[in-house]
């Protein structure tokens, strides 16, 4: 109908042409503006100097929120650069320094996927980054994991990409969640019907766009991380001690969504359907953004709760203990990267 009007009404047609021209001009202006921002940005020289300072390139260390950042500061391992200790870009503070002798830029991204993705993109665009180490706290969907354990993810998926189907639609080929299966006291139909889990588009340099569900972690980095298996993790917080010593657990699958998951039925569904052990709100965005840019990444997530609405162990809140264990693993890993690059350089 709209195109009919366009064809039959010369005046409207002309107006549309004009709009197209205006849009094109506006787009060109935007492109120029962004080019100018890049080279004439007030912090451009600062960023250049930071990049020249590192002997090789930096490791980007990313966490999402204040408890996780506080856990890093409490270790005392981050030594800020005397020259330029930090630079603020897009409202985030990029802290420049060293951890165990390795050049590191650490940044608190903010919570959830968009913040995490933006932050990693800024890191790789602005700085000379050789890889991204991500740590944080997480919920567990795997009953064999204990609070305080640190999961090293092998794969992570975005579990919020759904094809929400019509009532009584036929079953598809991809994994589905049937709302009716969760009715109480008994299963029956439900107007929310079924959701089919779908993949995400992954853009990467020099490759066509791929549809992916699982985002794998760089195998070389996983093999370095396997050396952390005997790391001693924190078991007590003030006067409270966990019943057993926390461990590093390898080979886990994680899932990310912009959802704080605290529901036993859905958490069990994720474990039973996908073998997902760790649930969080950022990891997949960090891994996908790193892969898009051809940069390796790794995820260490400390279990702070069971994601199931049961708060058996939350006296006191164990988030800071989980964050402390995750940061311990991340920092040891950075130390191993430093040793490895010394070996590689000789
Ligand atoms: C659940 O966690 C345990 C470690 O406590 C691990 O051995 C097991 O492989 C995990 N299950 C899955 C399906 O990943
Ligand atoms: C961890 O400890 C076990 C048992 O003492 C030992 O066999 C293994 O080699 C150690 N692993 C690493 C990476 O140090
Ligand atoms: C989950 O893990 C089990 C045991 O390792 C395996 O048999 C099963 O195929 C896995 N399921 C999925 C959906 O990957």
Automatic annotation (TrEMBL):
<protein>
    <submittedName>
        <fullName>Bark storage protein A-like</fullName>
    </submittedName>
</protein>
<dbReference type="GO" id="GO:0009116">
    <property type="term" value="P:nucleoside metabolic process"/>
</dbReference>
<dbReference type="GO" id="GO:0003824">
    <property type="term" value="F:catalytic activity"/>
</dbReference>
<dbReference type="InterPro" id="IPR000845">
    <property type="entry name" value="Nucleoside_phosphorylase_d"/>
</dbReference>
<dbReference type="Pfam" id="PF01048">
    <property type="entry name" value="PNP_UDP_1"/>
</dbReference>
<dbReference type="InterPro" id="IPR035994">
    <property type="entry name" value="Nucleoside_phosphorylase_sf"/>
</dbReference>
<feature type="domain" description="Nucleoside phosphorylase">
    <location>
        <begin position="59"/>
        <end position="318"/>
    </location>
</feature>
């Amino acid at each position: 109908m709209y195109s009919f009007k366009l064809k039959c009404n010369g005046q409207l047609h002309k107006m549309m042409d004009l709009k197209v021209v205006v849009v094109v001009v506006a787009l060109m202006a935007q492109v120029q503006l962004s080019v100018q921002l890049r080279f004439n940005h007030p912090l451009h020289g600062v960023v250049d100097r930071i990049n020249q300072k590192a002997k090789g390139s930096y490791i980007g260390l990313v966490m999402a929120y204040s408890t996780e950042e506080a856990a890093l500061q409490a270790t005392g391992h981050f030594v800020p650069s005397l020259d330029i200790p930090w630079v603020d870009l897009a409202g985030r503070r990029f802290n420049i320094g060293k951890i165990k002798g390795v050049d590191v830029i650490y940044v608190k991204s903010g919570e959830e996927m968009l913040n995490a993705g933006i932050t990693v993109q800024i890191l790789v665009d602005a700085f000379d980054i050789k890889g991204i180490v991500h740590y944080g706290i997480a919920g567990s969907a795997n009953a064999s994991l204990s609070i305080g354990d640190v999961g090293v993810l092998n794969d992570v998926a975005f579990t919020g990409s759904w094809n929400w189907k019509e009532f009584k639609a036929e079953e598809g080929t991809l994994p589905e969640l049937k709302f009716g299966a969760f009715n109480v006291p008994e299963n029956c139909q439900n107007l929310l019907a079924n959701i089919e889990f779908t993949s995400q588009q992954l853009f990467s340099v020099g490759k066509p766009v791929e549809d992916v569900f699982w985002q794998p972690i760089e195998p070389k980095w996983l093999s370095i991380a396997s050396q952390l298996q005997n790391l001693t993790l924190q078991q007590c917080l003030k006067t409270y001690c966990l019943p057993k010593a926390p461990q590093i657990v390898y080979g886990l699958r994680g899932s990310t969504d912009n959802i704080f998951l605290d529901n036993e039925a859905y958490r069990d569904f994720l474990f039973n359907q996908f073998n997902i052990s760790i649930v969080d709100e950022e990891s997949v965005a960090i891994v996908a953004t790193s892969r898009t840019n051809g940069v390796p990444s790794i995820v260490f997530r400390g279990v702070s709760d069971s994601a199931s609405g049961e708060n058996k162990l939350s006296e006191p809140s164990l988030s800071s203990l989980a964050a402390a264990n995750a940061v311990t693993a991340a920092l040891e890993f950075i130390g191993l990267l430093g040793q490895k690059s010394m070996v590689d350089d000789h």
